[in-house]
Amino acid sequence: MNIAKLILKSDETLNILLPQNSNCKNINYQAQELELKKEIDINLNDLKNCDNEKIIETIKQTYQNNLVKELDLSSQKEKIKILFILNEVPKFLKSIYKECEFKEYGLANYLEFDEIWDFYENNVRYFTVLTSMGANKIKLCLKNTQEIEDEINIMEINLDKE
Q1: Strands (DSSP E) along 24-133, which ranges?
Q2: Strand, helix or coil for residue 60
Q3: Quick one: 122 exposed, middle or buried, by C-beta within 10 A (0-12, 13-18, 19+)?
Q4: Which residue has the higher pLDDT, 82 or 27?
Q5: Phi, psi of 101 (to 5 degrees)
Q6: How does pLDDT run across 58-84, given as a tens digit for each residue?
Q7: Can you tell me the distance from the alpha carbon of 132 to that of 149, in angstroms, rounded to the nearest whole number?
Q8: Which of 72, 75, 122, 130 lies 20 to 30 Å from 89 when distance is taken between CA atoms?
């Protein structure tokens, strides 16, 4: 099994608010431009908790006990939030998970949460994904919309409206 990866597809320049650990254990968020085809790893625990009560209420109807973290992006046109519903490893898979080569990235892949996918509110567009089981990190990559992807274990989010 390969590492599950989240691919953002856009022909625009994207900026991402990345968590930066400081010496005093506080997390600061610093804007950084995402570079094409350059993969970055982000620790899910360092992301902000989602504070949109309306969205949290919708998610909790299906995923009652799951934490929801958010990643902030911006382009020239809009602000985007990608919400991650943290998916725990079920008890019956814990023994397999212990042997997993890429356990920091979880088992399986990311899944769309249809109820909040390409949802627009207060000048922010939201995408919500269920993480791969047990994921503590995400591998994030930016690609052009014209490119065809043939990897397995990936989730693509096309940010350019068609």
Answers
A1: 27-33, 40-43, 48-49, 68-74, 79-85, 111-121, 124-130
A2: helix
A3: exposed
A4: 82
A5: -70, -35
A6: 999 999 999 999 999 998 889 999 999
A7: 19
A8: 72
